[in-house]
Amino acid sequence: MSNQQRGKLVVGNWKMHGRLAANAALLQAVAQGSGELPADVRVGVCVPSLYLAQAQSLLKGSPVVWGVQDVSAFTHGAYTGEVAAPMVTDFGATFAIVGHSERRAYHRESAELVAVKTQRVLEAGLTPIVCVGETLEEREAGSTEQVVGGQLDEVLAKVSAQEAARLVVAYEPVWAIGTGKSASAAQAQAVHAFLRARLAAKGAADVPLLYGGSVKPENAEELFRQLDIDGGLIGGASLKDQDFLAICKAAAATSVAG
Ligand code: 13P
Residue 73 contacts by C-beta under 8 Å, 6 or more apart in sequence? Predict the structure, then answer.
């Protein structure tokens, strides 16, 4: 399948930002702006789980889908403070991010735990957005492929080929997240091609591969034109409706229908 046949996917990761009133304005603006996008550009927002019901009520009937930024590795039980994947399903969600580098770093999530969470998300009928990425130190040591390959392999080892085909994978170099310093289009494409080959070996060559890390209206189109970049996972710029919609429009400019 070609880059264009796969279409484009742009997902906002709000991280721990937002309050009820600000969310309402942002969700309404994104819902409205997304109505003008071609059908082969899909848009989603991953909100703090507390605001899932708000996202559902304001996005229902719009082309924008919603999801969360993490789930528990367990389906239910005595796990104070955790949110289980089936609970997320109750609110009509589509996506759950797993293995974001902020969780791997600040919550000490291992590659194995990320794989278990991926299984829980799949079992709940949701689409996991599995994040992988190397630190600056790892890149400079020449171990980018070893790191991201290892992170992906841990997940692929725990899912069937059919399940692998239901994944979304996001390449997010840790050094590009929130720094304003995106990977160059060539750097990102090289890692995406590597990940695509790994997925192809599992029979899942066509999963959407998103790039994340300082995507902005100014650099989105060049990134999205790369052969193996199927869209973006957007942090800071997803909190501003104009910027987020401009990035969605950049995706449209690189899609078949756009
Ligand atoms: P920024 O777009 O703020 O760099 O964040 C990227 C990210 O971590 C998305 O998950």
Answer: 113, 116, 117, 120
- The 10 Å Cβ neighbour count of residue 89 is 16
Count: domains in the chain: 1
CATH of the domain at 149: 3.20.20.70
Q: Helix, strand, or coil here: 169?
A: strand
Cα(122) to ligand 1 centroid in Å equals 23
pLDDT tens series, the chain, 258 aa: 777 788 999 999 999 999 999 999 999 999 999 999 999 999 999 999 999 999 999 999 999 999 999 999 999 999 999 999 999 999 999 999 999 999 999 999 999 999 999 999 999 999 999 999 999 999 999 999 999 999 999 999 999 999 999 999 999 999 999 998 899 999 999 999 999 999 999 999 999 999 999 999 999 999 999 999 999 999 999 999 999 999 999 999 998 765
Nearest CA to ligand 1 atom 1: 235
Neighbours of 111 (CB within 10 A): 17
Q: Do the domain assignments include residue 64?
A: yes
Q: Residue 23 falls within a domain, yes or no?
A: no
The amino acid occupying position 196 is R
Which residue's C-alpha comes closest to atom 9 of ligand 1?
235
C-alpha 209 to ligand 1 mean position (Å): 15
